[in-house]
Amino acid sequence: MVIVITGDKGVGKSTLCRKVIQKIQSRGLTCGGIITFKAPDSGINIEDIKTGKLETLASVRKIYSGPRSGIYYFNPEGLRFGQEAIEQGASADILFVDELGHLEVRGEGFASALPLLNGRKQPTVVVIREELLPSLLPRFVVQPIVVHTTIANRDELPSSILERLFPGTTFGREN
């Protein structure tokens, strides 16, 4: 099963993933893959969920030789780090990939993770911005369950996602 978390920029998709990860881990299950978040310098950091290690994924300054997307210059080392975290995280109970974006549409970034995602039998959670769904959803072998995140529903979504991942299990609603 693949669950795609989508929504507008800045609505809290990564925060939603963190809440889901915390609840899964509190049940004794393992999570792997990557989660991204804004860096203090307006760049992007990436975290290996399994190890907690961090790396710079992108900067708004032209200091990296990797691909460029929008205002970001991507760090080749950060991309390698993320790809390895996804590959190592594939053995976890649930794999998270936050996020597939413009680079992956162009066949760059973490695009090489798509065969891994398509071959997994265990649940996978992937973040994709809403405007990129038409380009990325057709690349999945199985039709993903798409969860739209908004400011109004984001506090209720962790339990809803967990109930989809673990049918028949009740998770408490967020306060």
Description:
By secondary structure, this protein is an alpha/beta fold. It has a domain at 2-37 and 81-165: Rossmann fold (3-Layer(aba) Sandwich), CATH 3.40.50.300. 29% of the residues lie in helices and 27% in strands. It has six helices and nine strands, in the order E-H-E-E-E-E-E-H-E-H-H-E-H-E-H. The protein has helices spanning 13-26, 76-89, 102-105, 114-119, 133-136, 157-165; strands at 2-7, 31-38, 44-48, 54-59, 68-69, 72-74, 94-100, 124-128, 145-149. A nine-stranded mixed sheet has the order 5-6-4-3-2-7-8-1-9, with helices on both faces. Strand 5 and strand 6 (72-74) form a beta hairpin. Helix 1 (13-26) crosses helix 6 (157-165). The radius of gyration is 15 Å and the shape is globular. The mean pLDDT is 93.
Give a quick set of tags describing it.
single chain, globular, 175 residues, Rossmann fold, nine-stranded mixed beta sheet, alpha/beta
